[in-house]
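Exercise 3.2. Students should predict the tertiary structure of the chain below and write it as structure tokens, then compare their answer with the key that follows.

Predict this chain's 3D structure.
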Amino acid sequence: MFRSVHTVYTGLNKLQHLNCNLQNVLTIGCVGQTRCRSNKHYKPEFKKLRSQKVLKVELPDYENEKVDSEDYSPEKLRTRYKEKGIQPTRPWIERTTFINNTGSIIEPYVPPEGDGKISPISTAGAKQKIELLKKKKETWQAIRKIRQNEEEFELYPEFITKAQDIYLKAHTTMVNKDKQNLLQYVTEKAYVEMLHNIDGKTLRWSFIQSIEPPRVVHARVTDIITQDNLFAQITVRFHTKQTLSVFDRFGRLIFGSDVVAKDVLEYVVFEKHIVNQYGIWRIHGKIIPDWMPPKEPAPITNILNVEAETETALQAQPDEAKSKIVLPDA
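Answer key:
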């Protein structure tokens, strides 16, 4: 019995050994028949160039950034920025600004009452001359400061001739509604005011002649933000003869006349950024004195409310019951 069992186990071991050998033989045969794919390139001499073609990019870790933002400690942020080689962001946003003109008229000139009508020989005219002489001190100080920045600046006749030329071109450009070239003759402040006044209207303007030669009556220089940023304003008095007619969008005359010429007295303020190398003189505004009577409002064409007028007309009709004549009983 023992021999038979031993014989059976011995036969089983031999069979298992034979199966293992057979599997090894089959595996070796399969491996020998197939070719393993290698990761090496077929041209190893360009290995360095191929490695330079690929860049390793470190992707941002949003979870760590979220933790850093919640735990806002300057030391951690400084360490992280230093590892990445970037400068820390500032809490404020800096934007470059350029101030091209002032937003208002500096110490506006106060025209004397009755200017252009009172004779200088009269008592009122003599008082006006004395007041002007008192105010001329600050004006000449401002002109002296302008000449410190512009050595070739001269009031007469260069500036006055230039001012009159700018005055004519600005009004001609406004009448033609040339918005692109208008900024060459007026500042941004005057640009908005002029376009607002001519919106939806048609203008006809012509310059006939100068009744009196234009002259400088006021000058001021001011600084904005810094003492080196200087702006100059010069007020010029124009006494001219012009024609002006304004038409609405339907072509109806609402102001002025094409035929009748009128005498116009204006105080025009010219401004320049004198510290700017490319600054130019432009119209900044006009001074309207307080003693001048207000102009009559122009008639404006509006759309009629037909329904409201119909209801008003119906209410105005007499009632039939009230209109009946009741005769007394005989």
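Discussion points: Confidence is low (pLDDT under 50) at residues 1-12, 24-32. The CA atoms of residues 309 and 315 lie 10 Å apart.
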